[in-house]
């Protein structure tokens, strides 16, 4: 029997979006529970690590977004069965996490001038370094996706992060930051053109 799924996060894309996309692409029903700040503050003490996203599977609360994404991928046929290809996916997810972590200090910087200085270093050095390493890695593989011929949850994560960067939501990070990386841009374009992804984006 299909599990009852409830995904809890804020009403933004963030860490939940690739999980939502994987479930939606796979045609797997889930409750898309989006919290206000107040609701989160109320729920926080009961969360395993005080953070979201959490995914409830038949009532069991599972934390950590990447674990949830891999699980959603397994249900949706977007997580490879071949152990080596699966390891490529895990590598891509962990690398994405490491890159995202470089942005975090700038989110918490209250001084606007200092924040923009941090963002300048991110835009000119740190992010190009990470994006360049990813580009090199994924362009060397066969197929249009990051880990081989098939779309996987790694591509959903790249798409979510990449399209977010391209939206220009981060002060000091140009929307053109991904332009020098044709493989990454190709993945973002391909995932964005997937009929279920388009359908999801039209609905939200
Ligand atoms: N490693 C965790 C990090 C989760 C995380 O940082 N969640 C943020 C939202 S993106 C959060 O809950 N922030 C509120 C808080 O920590 O109070 C994961 O991947 O799920």
From TrEMBL:
<dbReference type="InterPro" id="IPR036249">
    <property type="entry name" value="Thioredoxin-like_sf"/>
</dbReference>
<dbReference type="InterPro" id="IPR040079">
    <property type="entry name" value="Glutathione_S-Trfase"/>
</dbReference>
<dbReference type="Pfam" id="PF14497">
    <property type="entry name" value="GST_C_3"/>
</dbReference>
<dbReference type="InterPro" id="IPR010987">
    <property type="entry name" value="Glutathione-S-Trfase_C-like"/>
</dbReference>
<dbReference type="InterPro" id="IPR036282">
    <property type="entry name" value="Glutathione-S-Trfase_C_sf"/>
</dbReference>
<dbReference type="GO" id="GO:0004364">
    <property type="term" value="F:glutathione transferase activity"/>
</dbReference>
<dbReference type="Pfam" id="PF02798">
    <property type="entry name" value="GST_N"/>
</dbReference>
<feature type="domain" description="GST C-terminal">
    <location>
        <begin position="82"/>
        <end position="204"/>
    </location>
</feature>
<feature type="domain" description="GST N-terminal">
    <location>
        <begin position="3"/>
        <end position="80"/>
    </location>
</feature>
<protein>
    <recommendedName>
        <fullName>Glutathione S-transferase</fullName>
    </recommendedName>
</protein>
<dbReference type="InterPro" id="IPR050213">
    <property type="entry name" value="GST_superfamily"/>
</dbReference>
<dbReference type="InterPro" id="IPR004045">
    <property type="entry name" value="Glutathione_S-Trfase_N"/>
</dbReference>
<dbReference type="GO" id="GO:0006749">
    <property type="term" value="P:glutathione metabolic process"/>
</dbReference>
<dbReference type="InterPro" id="IPR004046">
    <property type="entry name" value="GST_C"/>
</dbReference>
């Amino acid at each position: 029997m299909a599990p009852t799924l409830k995904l809890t996060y804020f009403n933004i894309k963030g860490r939940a979006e690739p999980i939502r996309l994987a479930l939606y692409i796979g045609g797997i029903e889930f409750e898309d529970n989006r919290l206000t700040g107040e609701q989160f503050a109320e729920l926080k003490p009961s969360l395993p690590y005080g953070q979201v996203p959490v995914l409830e599977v038949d009532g069991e609360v599972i934390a950590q977004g990447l674990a949830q994404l891999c699980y959603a991928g397994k249900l949706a046929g977007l997580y490879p069965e071949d152990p080596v290809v699966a390891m490529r996916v895990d590598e891509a997810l962990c690398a994405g996490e490491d890159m995202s972590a470089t942005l975090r200090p700038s989110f918490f910087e209250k001084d606007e001038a200092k924040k923009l200085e941090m963002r300048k270093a991110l835009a000119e050095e740190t992010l190009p370094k990470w994006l360049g390493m990813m580009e090199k890695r994924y362009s060397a593989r066969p197929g249009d996706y990051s880990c081989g011929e098939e779309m996987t949850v790694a591509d959903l994560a790249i798409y979510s992060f990449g399209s977010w960067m391209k939206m220009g939501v981060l002060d000091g990070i140009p929307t053109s930051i991904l332009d020098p990386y044709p493989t990454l841009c190709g993945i973002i374009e391909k995932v964005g053109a997937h009929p279920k992804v388009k359908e999801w984006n039209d609905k939200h």
